[in-house]
Amino acid sequence: MLNDLIEIIDVRAKAAGFLPADDGKLSLANDENWPEGVLENQLYYWYTDFASILLVDITCETHAAAWQLAKRAETYLDAALVQREKNGLVIDGYLVLATTQMNDDLKAFIVEIERDTRFVRKHVVFHGQNGWERYQRITPLGLTRSFDEVVPTAFIPDGAESLQLLESLAKLGSRELARLHGKEWNLNE
Fold first, then answer.
1. Domain-located, residue 113
2. Quick one: pLDDT band at residue 186, thresholds 50, 70, 90?
3. Domain span at residue 105?
4. Are 164 and 78 contained in the same domain?
């Protein structure tokens, strides 16, 4: 099950220009910010010149246990970022927290942990009835490597769709129109 998630994220990570670590794992040796060795619940690690993504397993039943695992993984990734930033670059960190079970206590955890952007950005993915959910929300994986795949949309100023959009904008205002359009998008596609 977790291997399926690694494959899903790996395809997206490679498309966004990320590379996997040599053995798929982040290794911190003799690091003053992380003297404990390997993070035991680490699943996979990807990196670019500007960012790092660490995938960890936080499968547990309670908010408190998930929080503890997440904070430990956050400290581990932060130590890696500090190490990478020694050459003067700023490296963004993304911690992907995966769980193979979901309950109401963990739903509250998702909201809380994703709002916490201290050190690194955090995303929670979980295995639901239809397979892995929320992996589309992992911020850097929305990037594309090549603009060759992007097809520009032609703007026709006097077209019916343009006129309808302008009328809706005048009638509803920008915020309400954006809210309505946002409801049309399924972020868990």
1. yes
2. low
3. 2-147
4. no
pLDDT in tens, 121-134: 999 999 999 899 99
The number of helix segments (H) and strand segments (E) in the chain equals 5, 6
**In angstroms, rounded to a whole number, what is the distance separating the alpha carbons of residues 172 and 152?**
27
Q: Are 87 and 118 in contact (CB under 8 A)?
A: no
Residue 146: pLDDT band with limits 50, 70, 90: low
Cβ neighbours, 10 Å, residue 60 = 18
Alpha helix (H) ranges present in 25-150? 63-84, 104-115
pTM: predicted TM-score of the whole model, two decimal places: 0.76
Residue carrying the six token digits 């670019």: 48
Q: Choose among 58, 77, 70: nearest CA to 126.
A: 58
Please tell me whether residues 63 and 31 are part of one structural domain: yes
